[in-house]
Amino acid sequence: MGLYAILSGIRLNLGGQLGLNEILAVGGSLSIKKWKELFRDVPDIKRITIAYLVFLFAQILSDIVNHSATNDLVRGWANIAMAIIVTNFLARLLYRAPALIVVYLIGEIIRLALFGEESEGGLEDMGFFKFYLVPILNSIVLVLAYYLLSKKRESRRLIVGLLVFYGLFSIAFDARSNGIFWILTGFVLLQMERVKKLTLRKAVPYLVFFIILFQLLYSFYVSSVLSGSIGGDHSKEQFDRLENPYNPLALLASGRAETFVAIEAIRDKPVFGHGSWAPDKDGKYTLLMHKMHGEEEKFLSHLENAEKGLIIPSHSVIIGTWACAGVLGFLAIMYIFVLLVRRFFSLFRQPEFSASPLCPILIYFFFYLVWTFFFSPLPHIKQTLPVMIALVVVLHRKGEIQFKQKQVKRTMDSIALTKVGFTN
After folding, report:
1. How far is Cα 185 from Cα 179, in angstroms, rounded to an integer?
2. What distance lies between CA 281 and its chain's CA centroid?
3. Where, by residue number, does the polypeptide cross the bilayer (predicted)?
4. Residue 295 domain-assigned?
5. Is residue 70 part of a domain?
6. I need a labelling partner for 284 at 20 to 30 A (CA). Which of 155, 245, 275, 301 fits?
7. CA 346 remoteness from chain centre
8. Mind listing the pLDDT tens digit for each residue in 31-90?
9. How far is Cα 422 from Cα 13, in angstroms, rounded to an integer?
10. Among residues of the chain, what percentage have pLDDT more than 90?
11. Contact (CB, 8 A) for 88 and 49
């Protein structure tokens, strides 16, 4: 898995981007026997594969209806096909040894160090920190948390402190969503036993408390950014554009305007969508995105520099699927999302989960997975989602098997005691 992660940094331009890691996955997935064995061992992978095939069918249907360009439809279909292959490949490796996820993370550190795109600025450039250093630091923190927890279970509080500190550090240096993920991961890790026992009725007071706390902390953060105490130019420019910067929903609408623009595109073609890579032929949706960003003056230069034409902005796997493949594709991707959320909460309640050193990795992956489904571009189905999907369903399946084995053991012990009683 380390090699897979490293090779993802080397990409070939064959009409579309093809990573060497994807070639490795294809090479390791040629045996039909291996696919059958994986489907038998991890039934959820079979369910997810079927859902992806439904998504592919919907995409093909949409491309036929929309008369999509050959280059676009080939890239669109290949994106879904590669998501299936890569997800199955990684699940097969993790099923053999779930701890290989740590090797994957180490490979990610090496890849990012070798191939990560550097900013033209120095460390004071927030873009450099957010897009180059943060991914490296994320993997380092996860590996460190795994190592500490595997060596000494009592180090949980130390790990929580590390995660929260890193989260606050990320927020201060303009990586807001990343920082929130880490703070939430630390909180769940610290309060795991209480969180497990929460019912909907008990959760409501906590939810109200955290909404109020979040608004207070968010207001403090906005005030600090506007005064120049923390954050970078990007955050300050974002807040300056907002009518009410203290409204977090306004920030979300501005920062992820592409997602809301895609919703407008869905309204225009709700049944079949706009086809692979959803072309924005007259620039209608691109202009709307620039308006939401408060950067209308950039539209013309964007239009002039788009050599291959404009595409409908989406920046969301779920919404982007609907925009590209229509309602059937949306239902397929939502099935995968809901299945993963259910499997995570089922896994979360297993006693073995909280004792596992993989616990911090999985909790962080869950928050990142949810964010990716809602606020990351569609190509993430073959880039970042496969490893998270594979880890969730594999660990859930391992937990199921352990539970069944314990049930069998208890039954056998009960039979043995009964026989001893009869003998006496």
Report:
1. 10
2. 30
3. 98-116, 128-149, 156-173, 203-221, 317-341, 353-374
4. no
5. yes
6. 245
7. 19
8. 999 999 999 999 999 999 999 999 999 999 999 999 999 888 999 999 999 999 999 999
9. 74
10. 46
11. yes
Instruction: Fill in the amino acid letter for 233.
Output: D
SS3 state at 279: strand
- Whether residue 112 is contained in a domain is answered as yes
Rounded to whole angstroms, the Cα distance separating 288 from 258 reads 9
Helical spans, DSSP H, in 97-244: 100-115, 126-128, 134-151, 156-172, 176-190, 192-196, 200-227, 233-241
User: The tokens 């595109």 sit on which residue?
Assistant: 265
Contact between 84 and 52 (Cβ < 8 Å): yes
pLDDT of residue 123: 42
Collapsed DSSP state (helix, strand, coil) of residue 168: helix
Please report the DSSP string for 226-255 in residue order.
HHTSSS-HHHHHHHHH-S-TT-HHHHHHHH
Beta-bridge partners for 320: none
Residues in the chain: 424
Task: Tally the domains of the chain.
Answer: 1
Nearest of 93, 114, 79 to residue 9 by alpha carbon: 114
Give CA separation, 421 vs 107, 311, 412, 415, 424, in Å. Answer: 57, 75, 14, 10, 5
CB contact at 8 A, 394 and 335? no
Q: Are 183 and 197 in contact (CB under 8 A)?
A: no
- pLDDT band at residue 308 using 50, 70 and 90 as cut-offs: low
User: At CA 242, angle to CA 237 and CA 246, rounded to 5?
Assistant: 105
Rg of the Cα atoms in the chain: 23
The answer to whether the CB of 281 falls within 8 A of the CB of 311 is no
| CA nearest to 340, candidates 386, 309, 383 | 386
Residue 407 lies in a domain: yes
**Residue 134 is encoded by which pair of tokens?**
């943060």
Whose CA is closest to 281, among 82, 77, 69, 97? Answer: 69
Cα separation, 352 vs 139, in Å, equals 23
Token digits for 363? 């909790």
Alpha-carbon distance 389 to 92, whole Å? 12
Domain containing residue 94:
2-153+328-423
For residue 11, the 8-state DSSP code is E
Which tokens hold the place of 97?
């040894």
Cβ atoms < 10 Å from Cβ of 164: 19
> Which pair of structure tokens corresponds to residue 395?
């660990």
C-alpha to C-alpha distance for 290 and 283, rounded to whole angstroms = 11
Tell me the pTM.
0.88
* Cα separations in angstroms, 118 against 10, 125, 156: 16, 10, 34
Q: Which residue has the tokens 């592919």?
A: 56
